[in-house]
Amino acid sequence: MKLQVIHRTDYTYRSPVVESFNEVRLQPMSQDGQLCQSFVLKVFPPTHLSHYYDFYRNYVHFFEVTEPHPTLSIESTSIVTTSSPTMGKDLANIPMARLPECVRMEKCYDYLQGSEFVPLGPEVWRLAVDACGGIDDVWFAAQTIMRFIYDNFAYTPDATTVSTVMTEVLAHRSGVCQDFAHVMLGMCRSMKIPARYVSGYLYNGPGGHLLGAQASHAWCEVYLPGLGWRALDPTNNQFADERYVKVAVGRDYADIVPVKGTYKGTRQKTMKVAVQVIHVED
Questions:
Q1: pLDDT digits over 205-215, tens only?
Q2: Looking at the structure, do residues 29 and 168 belong to the same domain, yes or no?
């Protein structure tokens, strides 16, 4: 599938600000059946853009605007081709007894620990045990956790903020895709299944009813010994297929914030974010 993604963030300050330093994680990855064919990032006021790869190999652009400015606009346009991953029978033949192998893997270690938005504790451990206790297959356990979140948590926009931690979501059983991804991370990690946060976009299609589309979306990837990472979306209770555009991965939201920065000046500001995902004909 060929998709165009336009992501625009506009800041308006009550009075001009200075020394604005920013970094953005908006460029889609080119890996695992996904290819970012083009990416254009526009910033106003105009400035010089630089880039680097962070610790988790996410593509990061950074820039600064030192002169006084009353507004800041950041717009990215991507053309991405995607494909559905192969879901072979081997996915259902990995016993939980193999999970100790992951502790010794550098690529898994960070994704077994608690993190800023996903503190591990007895509450989330009990929830995970109640949901999938007795299951001896890693992939089946991960899917069971996904379905449990979908069935027991309410998708409620504005019920949480980007700063809400997993324990708060557990208490209220409501939130949005970011929150459900954090809950799934906590439950999987409590069962010793390596799990990482994925940010990106979701194409809904004409007449679609998927939650989290036409906005930044979040889902999870779990590591299956011998097979690698496989993606699950607890918000929509499904595998991540060709409708998903993957941008960045990390331990939780703190590692993949799409746009973040600092500046000097007024604290009074407004932010507007608009995302459009379009199917493009070849």
A1: 766 667 766 67
A2: no
CA 275 to CA 123: how far, in whole Å?
A: 35
Distance separating alpha carbons of residues 222 and 188, to the nearest angstrom: 8
Check if the beta carbon of residue 40 is closer than 8 Å to that of residue 92. no
Residues 180-226 have pLDDT tens digits of 999 999 999 999 999 999 999 999 876 666 776 667 999 999 999 98
What is the Cα–Cα distance from 72 to 227, expressed in whole angstroms?
43
Beta-ladder partners of 201? 216, 245
Cα distance between residue 160 and residue 170, in whole Å: 12
74-85 per-position pLDDT tens digit: 999 999 999 987
Residues 58 and 148 in one domain: no
Do 77 and 140 belong to one domain?
A: no
Q: What's the predicted TM-score (pTM) here? A: 0.94
258: its two tokens:
């799409």
Q: What's the rounded Cα separation, in Å, for the pair 31 and 240?
A: 14
3-state percent breakdown (helix, strand, coil) of the chain, nearest 5: 25, 40, 35
Instruction: Round to whole Å and give the CA distance between 32 and 275.
Output: 24
Instruction: Judge whether residue 89 has pLDDT over 80.
Output: no
Residues 77 and 123 in one domain: no
In a shared domain, residues 160 and 180: yes
43 shares its domain with 168 = no
- Give the separation between CA 125 and CA 132, rounded to whole angstroms: 11
Are 200 and 270 in the same domain?
A: no
